[in-house]
Write a structure and sequence with these properties.
The complex is a heterodimer of chains A (371) and B (97). Chain A is mainly β and 371 residues long. Helix content of chain A is 6%, strand content 34%. Chain A starts with 21 loop residues before the first strand and ends with a strand. In chain B, 58% of the residues lie in helices and 0% in strands. Chain B is globular and about 45 Å long. Classes of the chains: A mainly beta (371), B mainly alpha (97).
Chain lengths: 371, 97
């Protein structure tokens, strides 16, 4: 197998439960799934991307408690066993980092230079947030719940706290997950409990949750009041937006990608042989179902409908595939675009924005068919 | 003017001042560790203005930077926005750990 790969810090690049991930950062862990490894509706944990803002905390599950406090008449403090005794809910949902695709924006933008693989789909199981809020006797005037995890920053680094508006908290699919793909949530994904906010950006899905605070206002810390915002109106590439014109990202846009072939550029095209070429990938639309996926093999001049996978859930990606018989040897530009149930489709080029979020350009892959 | 052009040509040919870059590298190992590994910087491609902003942000968050100019020169020299993007390393097998 050769020598283990070493991190710059001397740490070997081995992460619990993970295999062959693209390493953007080793401490804290920021790991991207190689696109061609995303080939099943549910993403195996070993290939599920990881995004940590702050170092992973050590959580002693025996000591761990989840509290529900703030504008409630009966504050709760629950152990994991107590949570497991409450009614359990299950849901397949796609999780995507708001910055997935940041590496494609030009001029380049500070932050993780994700390409396509900061996305995955799992079946999450746990307790509805609405169930907890109701048991705690939530005040009807509350507008937000803020979620804090066990992770803490070093120095003056801000704590990671995210607020979710009450209308989304009370949605029957918003939950505190205790399981991922039928097994206890792995530590690297937030054990013992993480928030699931279906259709919303990954930043909302707080890991290692310890405290839910019900309030009339949103949290004022960096990670909610400053980070993860998107300009109301487009800005010129490289430009700036006024803070008052920045809005909190909520539901994700519509997007699609190829997983087969996984990628290809003019300088390094995907190579394939004449005959039947399987094209495949995923499409997802935030809080909307996918209505249609179209594929072009000629740079977007002609579009054909792809076949959609049978797994069709509101908050999960949809697999698509198409068998292509190239008309001859040569150089081809493969494209894919999705339309969701609300009629949204993808832009030719995603709007540049100061933090590099929501990249959902129509993907173009350069392919060379060999005779 | 002619001297300026020659100086510019020499700098373009040999890149940034080697001693300053080395000093910046040492500063990075001192000031930029503790909270995250250095890899988070090596995967960025930022202009000098971009790195300036990044250092301001890190200083606000608690990084103690003493050799700021050397650090900037080093970061732009290694991870400037004109530098090619490098392929990321793959992690080894951690399943079962």
């Amino acid at each position: 197998m050769g020598l283990p790969l070493l991190g710059q810090t001397g740490r070997p690049l081995v992460f619990p439960g993970k295999r062959s991930m693209l390493v953007h950062n080793d401490f804290p862990e920021d790991l991207e799934a190689p696109t061609e490894s995303l080939d099943s509706f549910l993403t195996p944990v070993e290939r599920f991307f990881v995004r940590q803002h702050l170092p992973r905390p050590r959580v002693d599950v025996g000591q761990w408690r989840l509290s529900v406090e703030g504008m409630v008449s009966r504050p709760l403090t629950l152990t994991l066993d107590e949570l497991l005794k409450l009614p359990q809910h299950k849901l397949p949902a796609t999780l995507e980092c708001a910055g997935n695709g940041r590496g494609y924006f030009r001029p380049s933008i500070p932050g993780l230079q994700w390409t396509k693989g900061a996305v995955g789909t799992a079946e999450w199981g746990g307790v509805r947030v609405a169930e907890l809020l109701q048991r705690a006797g939530m005040d009807g005037k509350a507008l937000y719940a803020s979620f804090d995890g066990a992770d803490v920053g070093a120095g003056q680094t801000p704590d990671f706290v995210r607020s979710v508006p009450m209308r989304k908290c009370l949605d029957a699919d918003t939950m505190i997950a205790l399981t991922m793909n039928g097994k206890p949530l792995p530590e690297i994904h937030g054990a013992p409990a993480r928030l699931i906010v279906p259709g919303w950006d990954g930043a909302s899905w707080v890991k290692w949750v310890t405290r839910v605070t019900v309030a009339a206002e949103a949290d004022k810390g960096f990670y909610f009041a400053t980070a993860y915002k998107y300009p109301k109106l487009p800005v010129a590439p490289g430009g700036a937006a006024r803070p008052e014109d920045m809005e909190v990202i909520e539901a994700m846009p519509v997007k699609s990608m190829f997983t087969s072939p996984g990628g290809g550029t003019a300088a390094n095209p995907a190579r394939m042989r004449m005959g039947r070429v399987p094209l495949a990938g995923f499409a997802w639309g935030g809080e909307n179902r996918i209505a249609r996926v179209e594929v072009s093999t000629d740079g977007g001049a002609r579009w054909l409908d792809a076949t959609l996978g049978k797994e069709d859930f509101r908050f999960a990606w949809r697999q698509w595939r198409m068998e292509w018989t190239p008309p001859g040897a040569g150089y081809f530009t493969l494209c894919v675009r999705a339309t969701d149930s609300a009629g949204r489709t993808q832009p030719i080029e995603a709007a540049w924005n100061p933090s590099g979020y929501l990249w959902n350009s129509i993907e173009r892959i350069a392919a060379v068919v060999e005779g | 003017m002619r001297a300026m052009v020659m100086l510019w040509a020499a700098m373009a040919a040999y890149g940034a001042d080697g001693a300053l870059v080395a000093k910046g590298a040492a500063e990075e190992r001192k000031a930029c560790v503790g909270c995250h590994s250095l890899r988070i910087s090596s995967t960025q491609r930022l202009s000098r203005a971009g790195w300036e902003k990044e250092l301001d942000k890190m200083a606000r968050w608690g990084a103690k930077i003493t050799e700021r100019e050397a650090l900037l020169v080093y970061l732009v020299d290694k991870y400037g926005d004109d530098k090619p993007v490098e392929a990321l390393p793959r992690s080894a097998d951690g399943v079962g750990r």
